[in-house]
Every structure is written in structure tokens, then in C-alpha cells.
Specification:
The protein is elongated and about 135 Å long. It has 9 helices and 6 strands. 61% of the residues lie in helices and 12% in strands. It is an alpha+beta fold. Helix 3 (39-59) runs antiparallel to helix 4 and helix 4 (126-192) runs antiparallel to helix 5.
Length: 456
């Protein structure tokens, strides 16, 4: 019985779910994970693979065709003279042979088998233009992948820094709560000794409650920031433990990049794709030459004198033929339609050119604004230590004055609030520089300077 209980206990522990393990993650890992695995990046890769398949499909136009057909049928053999217009839906089967003058329902076997080979010998550049258009589409899709990777990586880095900022605000809130509680104990002791009025104790208790409320809000903001980071990384928010690394320090100066932004490259590829589509219509109004060859056989149970063969006559295609020739097709009346289609693609190409110019201006403005934000953020980060030191000295002096009976509880509460604000602003100022640096790197089109400064 004891052994059975031990076995059952072991099974219970085996079946219990394992506790969730925290996952320390660095900035570089977060950016890599988002830029490689985020759904929009995967979708862009799928579109790029689709475009590559379209390019392969366009290249198959150079290959010859070979089609095989075989059939067996049982049908009547009544045939008539006269014209039959082409049928859009091919409802009426064709019948060959002489008119026998019969109109009966007697049926015979018929069979056919054949192989047809065709190849477009030359096309005046039509297929090459189609391949170039498909290649331009494939380039645009590849550049779109880089655009989505940059966007996902920058968003993940922003969410990573936001988690650190929320954590620093929570630390400042916790320190404010501890100072408020300590001051509350001092005021209570003085009030019980009759050295301070009871109103001061009530005011100190209210400051403790206010500090605790701010701490709760800071914790809520931290959880929300974790959830946003988890969205970009595809990991449970409760398991994420961002590793700050150098992000709580002031970064060094980083030079500008001279590379082109992926969004510009993608838009240029879209412009080239539109131009390539336009060129396909330059080669559309030309004759098409097809070299054709066929070998086929037919069998039928019907005879020209009106009689029929045996029961199995016509089941095998026992009459053979072959043919070799050249087909030429020319869309005589399509010129106006092709001209209109080419004009439509030309206007589309001009629209893409204007979008490229607009995007270039937009990215230039984003870089200039990001550089201005970085300059301001560095200046703020240089000023906040002075503000923090002054706030600490003011809080210590206010507390000492209150204990000596020279100050009021309101002065201490105001000094503590200023100190909590200065602590938060000092931490956020350094992270603000990193955020500005991230914005500048994203505007330039590469996160490499930002990741290098963060200590890749």
C-alpha cells in the first residue's frame, strides 16, 4: 500500500505542468527575432517566393510545347454539307468525311490518338519583355522583405526600450513609496510625542497612499510594455526578462550612414516594374510565328459506301498521318487597345516615380527630425544629473528642517515628489537618447549603428 502511494505521488509530480521559466533576452536577440519571425516579414518572404515563381513561369515561355491526346467514342455517322460558325462554348462536335445521305441512329466506334509539338520560333522581344517585367517584380518583392524586416526590428527595439523605461519608472515609484513611508513613521513618532500636530500625520499618510498609487500605475505600465514586446517577439510576456546591457548608460556619438533606405529601394523597384510592364506592350503588336509538327492516327467503323465494319471496327486508330508546318498569327485590330494599355502602364510608371520623389523627401525629413531629437535628448541627459543631485539635497534638507521643527510636512512632501520626478527623468533621459538614436538609425534605413552602440 505504501509502495502504491509512492508511485501515485510520483505520477502526480510528473503530470504537473512545469513552472514557467523566465527568458533573459538582449536587445540584439529581440531585434533578430522580430526581424526574422514576425508575421509581416514571413508574409513578405512568401510574396518574394511567389514573385520568384512568377519569374520562373515567365521563362517557361521560351520552351516548346508537346501535347498528347487520345479518345474513343461511339457515335452516329450522319454528315451534312454547310457552314457552321465557330462556337464559343464548343457545344456541337465536329464530324469529318463525305455526306452519305443517311439519317439513321446506327452508331459506330471512332478513335484517335496524336502528339502535337509547337514552338514559337521568334517573337520580336515579347517574351524577353515579359521576363524582365517578372524579374522587376521579383526585385520589388525582395526589397519589400528588407523593408518589413527593418520595420519589425525597429518596432521590437522600441518596445524593448519602452520596457526598460517602464522598469526605471517603477523603480523610482518604489523608492518614492519607501521615502514616504519612512517620513510617515517620523511624523507619527513626533505626533505621538506631541511635537507635531496630528494633521501632519494625516498628510504623511496621504502622501504614502499617493506614492503607492503611482507605484501601481507604474507596474501597470510595465506589464503593458511587456505585452507589447511579447507581441513583436511572439513569446509569452510573463517569461520575458529584458537585459539592459548598455542601454542604461549614455551612448557614444554615432556617425550617419550613407546607405539607401530599403523603402526607397523598394519604391525604385516598383517604378522599374511599372516601366517593364509598359515595355511589354511595345512588342505586343507583332506577328507570332509558330513551328508546328504533329503525328496522329484515327480509326472509324464507318465506310464511304454507307456500310459499317465489325463490332470492334474503329476502336483502334489504324489510319496514320503526320504534318509539319508554320503558323503565323497577327492581331490586326488590336493596335488601339494595345496603345491604350501601354498608356495606362506609362501613367502607372509616372505615378510610381512621383511616389519615389515623395518618399525621398519624407525620409529626408524623418532623418533631420530624428537628428534634432537626438541632439535635444543628449542635452537633456546632460542636465538631469544636476536636477537629480539638487532634488536629493532639497529632500534631505526639507526632512532635516522638519525634524528640527523649522519646516512643514508640505515642504517635505513637495521635496519628495520633486525627487521622485527627478529620479524618473534622469533614467528616462538616458533611455531617451537611445530612443532618439534608434529613430535616427531607422530613418537612415539600418539598425546596425544602433545595435553596435548597444554592444552587439
Amino acid at each position: 500500500m505504501i509502495r502504491l502511494a509512492a508511485v501515485l505521488t510520483a505520477l502526480v509530480f510528473v503530470c504537473l505542468p512545469a513552472p514557467s521559466q523566465s527568458k533573459p533576452i538582449t536587445l540584439v536577440e529581440a531585434v533578430r527575432l522580430a526581424s526574422e519571425k514576425y508575421p509581416s516579414v514571413e508574409a513578405a518572404r512568401a510574396e518574394a517566393a511567389r514573385a520568384a515563381a512568377s519569374l520562373s513561369l515567365a521563362r517557361t515561355a521560351y520552351l516548346p510545347r508537346a501535347d498528347f491526346l487520345a479518345q474513343v467514342n461511339r457515335a452516329t455517322r450522319n454528315n451534312v454539307f454547310g457552314l457552321l460558325l465557330p462556337q464559343p462554348l464548343a457545344v456541337l462536335p465536329a464530324i469529318s468525311g463525305p455526306v452519305l445521305g443517311t439519317n439513321g441512329m446506327e452508331s459506330v466506334w471512332g478513335s484517335a490518338a496524336g502528339l502535337r509539338f509547337s514552338w514559337e520560333a521568334f517573337d520580336f522581344g515579347r517574351r524577353r519583355a515579359a521576363v524582365e517585367a517578372a524579374r522587376a517584380g521579383e526585385r520589388r518583392a525582395r526589397e519589400a522583405v528588407e523593408t518589413h524586416r527593418l520595420a519589425a526590428g525597429a518596432a521590437a527595439a522600441e518596445a524593448f526600450v519602452a520596457v526598460l523605461a517602464a522598469g526605471e519608472i517603477r523603480k523610482a515609484a518604489e523608492a518614492a513609496v519607501e521615502r514616504a513611508r519612512m517620513f510617515h513613521r517620523i511624523v507619527e513618532a513626533l505626533a505621538r510625542a506631541g511635537l507635531r500636530p496630528g494633521a501632519d500625520a494625516a498628510r504623511a499618510a496621504a502622501e504614502v497612499a499617493a506614492a503607492e498609487i503611482q507605484q501601481l500605475r507604474a507596474e501597470e505600465a510595465l506589464e503593458q510594455a511587456r505585452a507589447e514586446l511579447a507581441r513583436w517577439l511572439g513569446l509569452p510576456a510573463a517569461e520575458l526578462v529584458p537585459v539592459a546591457g548598455k542601454l542604461l548608460e549614455l551612448p557614444e556619438e554615432v556617425g550617419l550612414l550613407g546607405s539607401e533606405h530599403p523603402r526607397l529601394r523598394e519604391q525604385r523597384a516598383a517604378m522599374e516594374e511599372a516601366q517593364a510592364r509598359e515595355r511589354t506592350f511595345e512588342h505586343a503588336w507583332y506577328p507570332r510565328f509558330w513551328i508546328e509538327a504533329a503525328a496522329y492516327g484515327r480509326g472509324t467503323g464507318a465506310r464511304t459506301d454507307g456500310s459499317t465494319g465489325g463490332a470492334a471496327s474503329g476502336l483502334a486508330p489504324n489510319f496514320q498521318n503526320w504534318a509539319v508546318g508554320l503558323n503565323v498569327t497577327f492581331p490586326l485590330l488590336d493596335r488601339a487597345a494595345l496603345r491604350a494599355q501601354r498608356q495606362r502602364e506609362a501613367e502607372g510608371g509616372r505615378a510610381e516615380q512621383e511616389r519615389y520623389r515623395d518618399l525621398a523627401r519624407q525620409l529626408q525629413a524623418e532623418q533631420e527630425k530624428a537628428a534634432a531629437r537626438l541632439t535635444t535628448a543628449r542635452r537633456i541627459a546632460q542636465s538631469t544629473p544636476v536636477q537629480l543631485a539638487s532634488a536629493r539635497a532639497a529632500e534631505q534638507q526639507a526632512t532635516a528642517r522638519y525634524q528640527a521643527g523649522l519646516g512643514t510636512a508640505v515642504e517635505v512632501a513637495e521635496a519628495q515628489r520633486l525627487l521622485a520626478q527627478a529620479e524618473a527623468e534622469d533614467a528616462l533621459a538616458r533611455l531617451g537618447v537611445w530612443r532618439a538614436l534608434l529613430g535616427l538609425a531607422a530613418a537612415q534605413g539600418s539598425l546596425e549603428p544602433f545595435l553596435d552602440a548597444a554592444g552587439r
